[in-house]
Amino acid sequence: EAQMVESGGGLVQPGGSLRLSCAASGFILSIYDMKWVRQAPGKGLEWVSTINSGGSTYYADFVKGRFTISRDNAKNTLYLQMNSLKTEDTAVYYCATQSERLRGQGTQVTVSS
After folding, report:
1. Is 103 within 8 Å of 22 (Cβ atoms)?
2. Which one of 70, 87, 102, 104 has the fewest beta carbons within 10 angstroms of its own beta carbon?
3. Sequential DSSP letters for 30-67
4. What is the DSSP code string of 62-111?
């Protein structure tokens, strides 16, 4: 059974950093276009970043220059390095296939002083 499990969320102060991980099993992550999306309290899902099967990366304007998406093919794991975090980055972060056919359970990121 294909699944993805996120980890790495937590509470961080504004300006801090976190690295989210998304461990995939049951499928080869690198052959798919993968993305991170987030959902803030009371809001809908919001696209954050995509890495395609060729390794090209794309970012929403509100994270450009602060977040970096990457993957480790040997570990079959997707990452999101988040730097210079802001209070408005508070959300549940999900990894997913670009098609949304598969999505993890999410990890909570809270940015607060």
Report:
1. no
2. 87
3. GGS-EEEEEE-TTS-EEEEEEE-TTS-EEE-TTTTTTE
4. TTTTTEEEEEETTTTEEEEEE-S--GGG-EEEEEEETTSSSB---EEEEE
* C-alpha dihedral sign at 81, 87, 92, 97: negative
The set of long-range contacts for 23-27, using a CB threshold of 8 Å and a minimum separation of 24, is 23/75, 23/76, 23/77, 24/76, 24/77, 24/78, 25/76, 26/1, 26/2, 27/2, 27/102
**Is residue 18 a contact partner of residue 82, using CB atoms and an 8 Å limit?**
yes
The whole-angstrom separation of Cα 73 and Cα 93 is: 21
Mean pLDDT over the full length of the chain = 97
Residue 56 backbone phi and psi in degrees, to 5: -70, 145
